Backbone:
């Protein structure tokens, strides 16, 4: 639990866009407080359950306007850089889920309507998995994903 | 003799395939005939690049056996570089039994090596480079990296022997891979001091992992005979995965082809009429990158040690890009001559010259330098550990005879059931009757993380590791390939389906006595070159192998332990 919280806070503080957003009052203050800790989502063992716990629905549609930028192979599974560019208007929140992690819900951020939908963070991955961004905008849930390979490595030419 | 009429015609064919015109040289060139000097290479055009790569610190001439297994899967099946032996010669139209056939293939290796002698050596290489350069004023010499690692002296001088040798050789621009295993601090020390004003170290795809700012200059721009040119660096994208990340913990790599496109656009915007990428991607990754990034005239690449006599021409949205890969061990020098007219490349000539030491007078200054730099270490380097009764080599997708000796040594000296040796592509060859010196053993083992490890592993873990490494070798998407070969395995047999996917390529795992490897049972596994930090008290791999060799006195390996290969019937990447 503490580990997850630390990851959450680290992700929150590490994102350049987010820092700016918080400084300019775009973030709702409660979002960075423990009061907003989405316990149900973090405790969920399946991606669908986690999405449902966080957004109140797991019904999402693929949207090519959402870009998930992640390395095709992780250099370090403990800190995989992921950027979500949500090219849709009125982004309310963004969540990143790692399907094959024991707890798939990795991180999330809530934004007020005027913030640009850019979220850059680092997530932890145990093994090769699909990394999916869920973006809530205009009352709808949009999604896109990218696969990151986590390898044991060690045999370069 | 070597630049024969046939080869010239072949060049013409390649040039036409590239869609370039051939103004003013066709008739005249075709009647030149065979020059008496194999290294006579008439100059062409107004911009020239000389390229070598992956010399792995081999200052002295060596034998280097090319692979007889270099399988391509998916879109790479049957295409360069995944051709070996007769299929290779046929594809590149090289006559069997010739000097070139020996340089580019493993065929008849022992007899041909005795006939034609050793290859490379920096003193011989220097003579060749100076000769070729003299006819090409302003030509730039590009070093693709894997230069500061691969010998005892490079290890003990922390790459300094090679840094100074490359400055003497006249290298203008370089990029890197094994260089990084000297540690971030040492790399920056060399780049900021030794190389400054001499060699530009370029890499567009190495960034700090906090702010993603570049560590090195991404490119260098120069003017050659009045033509503005740019050379962009591309370091080995998977260095933090294939090598110990703790040696450069703040650096992040990756292919970053979108960033590459931005850099190409930037240098074109600044007026570059020729754009070259000096790459350590590995040839399969180069080929894919060439199809996705536009505006590059040529990728001059390395890492996978593929010596390709002619470029592969790759089409992309901006036109065509030549993909050149120049082998390893200072065995080859690639010469790319471009004719630049009206602001763009209108024609080219390419020739890859094998460096036969017997045909080249060693450069006196370089020879003296090599003697000097090796002198303090000769006692250790010249120790004869044993004699070999077999050809010892490493290169090949699954195993080499030299690796087999390392595996046997690890099992015997460390008392392991099973031994793993990494699928490195460097490491030189020896002929039957040759003494095995510490110098030679270090060409196989000299790395900055050399600890010999002994671990308990379950059968399941062994399977997972083999599947993972096989996926790095045979993933049909080149961007998932790391450019090494399969881990070499002693004490265990297995089968591999090269067309499988991760999790189902490896099968039939059993000990040498026929006992099936049990997923739940624990085995004692020896290895080396772990990418995790290891305790100091563990022995270094060269000491483990040296002990075994001193004891054995005569080394004989008729056939290395190879897996049963499935799905490769008719594949021209296996012979």
Residues:
């Amino acid at each position: 639990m503490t580990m997850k919280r630390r990851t959450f806070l680290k992700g929150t503080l590490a994102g350049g866009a987010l820092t700016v957003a918080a400084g300019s009052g775009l973030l709702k203050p409660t979002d960075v407080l423990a009061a907003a800790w989405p316990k149900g989502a973090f405790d969920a063992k399946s991606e669908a359950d986690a999405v449902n716990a966080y957004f109140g629905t797991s019904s999402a549609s693929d949207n090519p306007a959402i870009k998930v930028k992640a390395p095709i192979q992780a250099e370090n599974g403990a800190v995989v850089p992921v950027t979500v560019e949500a090219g849709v208007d009125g982004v309310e929140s963004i969540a990143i889920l790692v399907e094959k992690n024991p707890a798939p819900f990795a991180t999330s951020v809530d934004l007020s309507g005027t913030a640009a939908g850019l979220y850059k963070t680092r997530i932890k991955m145990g093994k090769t998995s699909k990394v999916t961004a869920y973006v809530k905008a205009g009352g709808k849930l949009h999604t896109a994903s990218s696969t990151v390979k986590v390898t044991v490595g060690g045999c370069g030419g | 003799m070597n630049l024969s009429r046939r080869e010239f015609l072949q060049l013409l064919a390649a040039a036409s395939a590239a869609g370039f015109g051939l103004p003013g040289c066709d008739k005249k060139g075709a009647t030149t005939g065979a020059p008496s000097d194999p290294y006579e290479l008439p100059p062409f055009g107004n911009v020239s690049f000389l390229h070598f790569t992956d010399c792995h610190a081999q200052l002295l001439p060596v034998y280097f056996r090319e692979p007889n297994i270099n399988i391509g899967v998916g879109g790479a099946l049957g295409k360069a570089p995944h051709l070996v032996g007769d299929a290779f010669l046929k594809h590149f139209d090289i006559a069997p039994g010739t000097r070139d056939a020996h340089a580019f293939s493993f065929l008849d290796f022992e007899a041909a090596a005795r006939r034609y002698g050793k290859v490379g050596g920096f003193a011989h290489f220097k003579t060749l480079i100076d000769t070729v350069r003299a006819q090409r004023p302003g030509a730039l010499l590009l070093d693709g990296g894997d230069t500061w690692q691969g010998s005892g002296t490079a290890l003990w001088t922390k790459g300094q022997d090679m840094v100074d040798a490359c400055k003497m050789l006249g290298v203008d621009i370089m990029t890197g891979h094994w260089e990084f295993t000297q540690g971030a601090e040492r790399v920056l020390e060399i780049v900021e001091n030794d190389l400054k004003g001499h060699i530009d170290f370029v890499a567009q795809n190495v960034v700090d992992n906090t702010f993603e700012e570049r560590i090195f200059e991404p490119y260098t721009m120069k003017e050659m005979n009045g033509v503005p040119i740019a050379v962009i660096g591309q370091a080995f994208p998977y260095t933090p995965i294939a090598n110990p990340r703790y040696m450069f913990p703040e650096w992040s790599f990756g292919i970053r082809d979108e960033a590459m496109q931005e850099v190409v656009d930037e240098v074109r915007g600044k007026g570059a009429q020729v754009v070259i990428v000096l790459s350590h991607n590995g040839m399969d990754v180069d080929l894919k990158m060439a199809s996705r990034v536009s505006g590059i005239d040529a990728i001059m690449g390395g890492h996978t040690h593929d010596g390709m006599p002619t470029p592969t021409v790759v089409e992309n949205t901006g036109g065509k890009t030549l993909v050149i890969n120049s082998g390893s061990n200072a065995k080859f020098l690639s010469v790319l001559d471009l004719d630049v007219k009206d602001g763009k490349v209108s024609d080219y000539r390419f020739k890859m010259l094998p460096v036969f030491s017997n045909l080249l007078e060693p450069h006196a200054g370089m020879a003296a330098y090599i003697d000097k730099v090796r002198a303090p270490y000769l006692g250790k380097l010249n120790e004869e550990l044993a004699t070999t009764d077999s050809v010892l080599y490493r290169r090949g997708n699954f195993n080499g005879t030299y690796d087999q000796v390392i595996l046997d040594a690890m099992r015997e000296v460390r008392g392991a059931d099973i031994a793993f040796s990494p699928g490195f592509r460097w490491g030189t060859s020896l002929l039957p009757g040759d003494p095995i010196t510490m110098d030679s053993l270090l060409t196989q083992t000299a790395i900055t993380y050399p600890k010999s490890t002994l671990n308990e592993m379950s059968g399941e873990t062994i399977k997972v590791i083999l599947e993972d490494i096989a996926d790095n070798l045979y993933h049909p998407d080149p961007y998932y390939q790391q450019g090494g070969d399969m881990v070499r395995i002693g004490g265990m047999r297995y089968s591999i389906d090269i067309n499988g996917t991760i999790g189902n390529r490896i099968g039939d795992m059993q000990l040498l006595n026929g006992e099936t490897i049990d997923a739940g049972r624990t085995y004692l596994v020896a290895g080396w070159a772990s990418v995790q930090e290891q305790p100091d008290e563990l022995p270094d791999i060269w000491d483990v192998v040296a002990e075994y060799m001193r004891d054995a006195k005569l080394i004989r390996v008729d056939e290395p332990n190879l897996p049963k290969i499935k799905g490769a019937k008719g594949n021209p990447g296996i012979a």
Notes: Chain A touches chain B at residues 71-76, 79, 81, 128, 149, 151-157 (CB under 8 Å). Confidence is low (pLDDT under 50) at residues 1-26 of chain A.
